[in-house]
Input
Amino acid sequence: MALNVTKISQISPLSDSSREYPFILPLTFFDLRWLSFHPTQQVIFYKLSESSRESFYSVILPKLEQSLSVILHYYLPLAGHLKWYPQDLKPCIVVLPHDTVSLIVAESSDANFSIVSSKGLRPAKELRPLVPELPVSGDSPTLLSLQVTLFPNQGFSIGIVSHHVFMDGITAQMFTKSWAHICKHGTTALPEDLTPFLDRTVINVPVGLETKMLEFLPYLSEDKDNARTLKLPLTEETDADVYRITLELTLENVVKLKERAKNETNRPHLELHLSTFVVVNAYLWTCLVKARGVDVDRPVAYEYAADFRNRLGPLVPRTYSGACVFPISCLGYKAKSFLGEDGFINAVEILSDSVKGLGSQGIEVIFDLCVERVKNIEQGTQVWAVSGSNRFSVYESDFGWGRPVNSETVSTDQCQLLSMSEMRDQTGGVEIGLCLKKSEMDVFISLFKNRFEN
Output
């Protein structure tokens, strides 16, 4: 896809004479876990009935820029950088008076918007030009970068790349909804449910747990020799044979999966946590293991991020903005557990026990288990992770020109990562995005659809 960059804006947060600089936000235990994680890259597509160059540059773009300035006043840390000063035990987010967020404006002259914004099977690398890179100054990465791409007389897209230390999935959703609200309504005020809560003192974890996390960081970083590095993994070139697809499970499909789990388990139904999240991820895990091949003894694992806003004491406000999730791994399994007819129910019971266990285990126990598993993971383990959940309503961000026609997590092409969200046009349905090599993707799609077609 050929793009022509027409403008690069540096958007400042709306000025506030009462705010003191430098603005410093300390990282919490949860933030630190994601210090060296791949930036999250998302692109959101908006179809327009009227989208000439003239109307885009005179109406749409000014509104997007003005509302972005307003929303950065609320989400001030996103204008800053990560710093780790020599005298400090841990890094922090620092915002200086003239810090800005980069907004690239581009045009596509040859792309068919309907195809680019579709959910169908296509080469993964096609979406890469629609998201920017996260600027890094030395060893001090920024937290947010944006790109708006016009498809003349068709629509536009908003590409968002963000650092995970401040933007977990819930924060990312809320930021986009808040920006859209300001843009659509032409206001500078946010409703309470969209106003970010930034106070880090609400994150209460056992004494000494942050120190343990700091000691664990070298195991998570690509730079094992520099424990204080803030460098992020480089975005790797996506192979031409890697393909992307967004699949849907309707509410009817989800109900069938829950009924299947009840029919196949030998355990009392009340013992199982048969949520949509559990049965859908169990189904995906089973299909992914089968699509890889029949090496029955290869090690396999599945990982999801658990939100701890409602799991700490006292509870953290739902509008808390930052990272408040922790990865939960289901490790120690062989492919043969998922290749047979009982593969689905095995996955259901494993994930059900994992999710139910979050209610009885404190964060310190969960952290210690995580450290043990990372240090002892069997070489060659096929690890799949899911980002998001069936409760993520990514289609509610209306900037004033209608709801998105599609939303894609572009960074799923960088690792074995699935994206999950609520379906656009049906409550209770689920969308799943993933990237695989074409040969493996064909097998996966066949397995995924076969159960419901037969």
The chain has a mean pLDDT of 94.
